[in-house]
């Protein structure tokens, strides 16, 4: 039987085409994205600095990641053209703080607005009210805006640094907000301190957590989905670390091995606007689980040894990353040297010709911006988004990461929930 399922309550929407057996178990799954964005085409012919304004509009929830990818691409382009850009530790730290804020708020929204809501609905229960989560994500965005000026769609980063010059007052305000966020994660998300959470991961006792994340795991246990959702066992991180991991074997990742496959798109007679992103010709998973595993973080690595790349490990990795990022933001805020310059002007962009690449670890995985410019004008612009990695649509004999995770699940409704564990974003996908 073939069934078409419209997936909403994501960033955008997607269509899943399921083929099931007589019992309703999923035998095949295809993923379609039906809307074309065209941001790459919009950028061509423009001044290269326009990318700092237009690229953040790719997405309404991870636009800051696109800004940082775009500015890193421009700085790479300067470097390759023989005009190295100087970035002070202060400017670098401010970019890392704002980027981390975006990841934190994204993960909280995913937990409360998507996973708790959809898993509860599948159990026939009234979805929990998410007002507390919306409040705390607004606080995270305020923290980000102390330095970026606004969220979303900031353009405060530019080649050579950032446009803000914070004082101790902004840093104190940021630390106050961060304390509230940390308290929310411990009291509401986990229901315990972070050290006890790490112990639960190590001992595989996460189901006893009293917080909202514990509720989500118990929902998955009642649905018999905790150990479902296993995929290829291949993971990729291309941001600050560049590591590929396949079947527990780690290797240095090479951006030159990244390619796009358009064989499933409309232009080739397919049914989707999304191109597949491949590494060395294979589907790899990106995002929090990949980052935790390639960094060999203890708690997630312990879970992975027991459960593999199943739903419980993937869910926990995103929550664990919230905790990690809060600690990193605190360290960056407390070590800021405000006496350093925020911005060191580079050469005029109109004098620059060449190619550059910028890579960022965005909420859902590795984000790549590539461009070629001539005397400051964009000739070619290419974006490979995290959703392309995780939600690529391969043929039945070589399914993409999320496709494979859905195969074998006992019903379409449960397979759709597994699909959401990848933190789906369709508006980033089609350019």
UniProtKB/TrEMBL annotation:
Kindly list the positions annotated as binding Ni(2+): 59, 425
Q: Which residues form a coiled coil?
A: none
Spell out the SUPFAM superfamilies in the cross-references. HydB/Nqo4-like (SSF56762)
Q: Which Gene3D superfamilies match?
A: Cytochrome-c3 Hydrogenase, chain B
Keyword check for Transcription regulation, yes or no: no
What highest taxon heads this organism's lineage?
Bacteria
Keywords attached to this Swiss-Prot or TrEMBL record, sorted alphabetically, are: Iron, Magnesium, Metal-binding, Nickel, Oxidoreductase
Q: Record-annotated residues binding Mg(2+)?
A: 40, 62, 383, 431
Transmembrane domains' residue ranges: none
Q: Which GO terms describe its cellular component?
A: cell envelope
Concerning Pfam families, the annotation shows: NiFeSe_Hases (PF00374)
Q: Which residues bind Fe cation?
A: 428
Task: Give the protein family.
Answer: Belongs to the [NiFe]/[NiFeSe] hydrogenase large subunit family.
- Name of protein: Nickel-dependent hydrogenase large subunit
Organism the protein comes from: Sulfuricurvum kujiense (strain ATCC BAA-921 / DSM 16994 / JCM 11577 / YK-1)
């Amino acid at each position: 039987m073939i069934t078409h399922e419209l997936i909403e309550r994501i960033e955008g929407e997607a269509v899943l085409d399921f083929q099931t057996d007589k019992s309703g178990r999923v035998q095949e799954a295809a993923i379609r994205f039906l809307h074309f964005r065209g941001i790459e085409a919009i950028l061509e012919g423009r001044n290269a600095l326009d990318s700092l304004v237009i690229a953040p509009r790719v997405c309404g929830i991870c636009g800051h990641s696109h800004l940082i990818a775009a500015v890193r691409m421009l700085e790479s382009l300067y470097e390759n053209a023989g005009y190295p850009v100087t970035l002070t530790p202060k400017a670098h730290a401010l970019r890392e703080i704002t980027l981390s804020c975006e990841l934190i708020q994204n993960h909280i929204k995913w937990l409360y607005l998507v996973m708790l809501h959809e898993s509860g609905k599948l159990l026939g229960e009234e979805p929990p009210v998410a007002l507390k989560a919306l409040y705390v994500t607004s606080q995270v965005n305020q923290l980000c805006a102390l330095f970026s000026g606004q969220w979303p769609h900031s353009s405060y980063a530019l080649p050579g640094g950032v446009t803000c010059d914070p004082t101790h007052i902004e840093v104190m305000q940021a630390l106050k907000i961060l304390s509230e966020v940390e308290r929310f994660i411990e009291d509401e998300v986990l229901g315990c301190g972070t050290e006890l959470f790490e112990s639960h991961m190590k001992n595989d006792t996460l189901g006893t957590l009293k917080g909202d994340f514990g509720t989500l795991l118990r929902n998955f246990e009642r649905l018999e989905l905790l150990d479902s959702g296993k995929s290829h066992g291949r993971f990729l991180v291309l941001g600050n670390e560049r590591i590929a991991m396949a079947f527990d074997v780690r290797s240095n990742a090479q951006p030159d091995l990244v390619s796009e496959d358009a064989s499933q798109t409309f232009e080739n007679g397919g049914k989707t606007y999304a191109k597949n992103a491949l590494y060395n010709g294979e589907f790899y998973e990106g995002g929090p689980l990949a980052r935790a595993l390639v960094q060999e973080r203890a708690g997630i690595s312990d879970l992975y040894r027991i459960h593999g790349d199943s739903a419980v490990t993937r869910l926990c990795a995103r929550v664990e990353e919230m905790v990690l990022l809060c600690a990193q933001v605190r360290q960056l805020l407390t070590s800021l040297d405000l006496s350093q310059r925020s911005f060191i002007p580079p050469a005029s962009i109109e004098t620059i010709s060449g190619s550059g690449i910028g890579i960022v670890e965005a909420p859902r995985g590795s984000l790549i911006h590539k461009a070629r410019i001539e005397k400051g004008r964009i000739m070619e612009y290419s974006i490979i988004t995290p959703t392309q990695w995780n939600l690529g649509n391969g043929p039945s004999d070589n399914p993409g990461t999320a496709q494979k995770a859905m195969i074998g699940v006992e019903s379409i409704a449960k397979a759709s929930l597994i699909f959401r564990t990848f933190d789906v974003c369709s508006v980033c996908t089609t350019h």
